[in-house]
Amino acid sequence: MQYKTRNERKRKFPFGLILLLLAxxxxxxxxxxxxxxxxxxDGFLTNLWQPDISIESDPYLDGNPIALDVPSGVTSVLLxxxxxxxxxxxxxxxxxxxxxxxxxSQFHLFSFPRDLWVNIPGVGEQRxxxxxxxxGYQLLSDTLALNFGFRPDHYAMINFDGFKEVIEAxxxxxxxxxxxxxxxxxxxxxxxxxxEPGTWTMNAHEALWYVRARKNSSDFERxxxxxxVVKAMVEKxxxxxxxxxxxxxxSAIKRNVVTDxxxxxxxxxxxxxxxxxxxxxxxxYRITETxxxxxxxxxxxxxxxxxxxxxxxVLKQALWIE
Length: 322
Description:
Layout: H1 15-38, H2 46-49, E1 74-82, E2 94-101, E3 106-111, E4 117-120, E5 124-127, H3 131-148, E6 154-159, H4 160-169, E7 173-177, E8 181-184, E9 192-195, E10 198-202, H5 204-212, H6 219-237, H7 246-256, E11 257-259, H8 263-270, E12 281-285, E13 292-296, E14 302-306, H9 308-318
Parallel strand pairs: 1-6, 3-12
Antiparallel strand pairs: 1-2, 2-3, 4-5, 6-11, 7-10, 8-9, 13-14
């Protein structure tokens, strides 16, 4: 006896399709969450790496009449430069605040002159660049909170040898010089170098000299030059053409930078690649002679006496407060 069998294809449960839909859903939720976090809001991803966030009272900001109300979506990193390998005892001759508005992906740079005469908690009146060797980043952060009404979100510290290594990893930088600069140097027979306004390609040694030269430069001039070089570094690192070299730059940073930031922080706040195809938008803000008056202490030291109100006016612009 012959039996007819129906040639039917067995129906399979679409596991692959369901997994794909779940993956797409997770990616969409992650994108929405990351965007919320970047704009200063809570996102579900926050609970993955910050399950228990407790807000403690800040002894130097709570009740401080000059405390600044930094808006959500604004993140700041204090960039510190030192000339000594021992990070625990070195002075921070470069103190540059890198501020990012995560809502617009704009950058602001703000410099603190090293010779600002401030009240360091537990120490007394001293130059600002001595706060770090007295008590590390915590004391420097406390000093900024007490004297200027704000505390940076993160910090990153590098010595000058490491600074050169990062410049080398970037294969030099194109620095836009806004004012003629001339100072003692040792790269020519005259032992004197002059940089005219314009865009100059600098190697690691030239960039370090430009930032550090001080025989013919004031503290205000050095903060301007440091901003110009750091701006050039950020712009080059975030250019799409630099992506193939990003691994070398990251390795140089990892070897030489001491920071409290994680890769996650960098991804969330400082590397929104999709918005940088036209290059990052960076603006500079500086303290001038009207914001900090040169003078002498009772002990005969040359310092800068800060006008707190005037400095805060500039800080508010740098922090998108007004």
